[in-house]
Fold this protein.
Amino acid sequence: MSRMDGFCGVDVVSVEPLEPRLLRLVFSDGCRATVDLDGIVVDYCGVFAPLLDPSFFRRVDVSRDLGTVVWPNGADIAPETLRAAAAPPALPPSK
């Protein structure tokens, strides 16, 4: 099964970290969104604690295997969670 056959059917293909803990995302269907991690991560503890350090937060990358954002310590967030938290709502692909 490929990632595209997963639950949400849409992967993250591009990420740009913004301050303080915002991510600008592009999904595999072309939708673009900005996500505030403070609205997703209730407690910055455990694997998420390093994300409070701006220099570590900026080390975010996209895992093609997982289809989502990851950090060097193994922290990741499911693409469907990111899509649901998009603010403003995910924009449709431009034509």
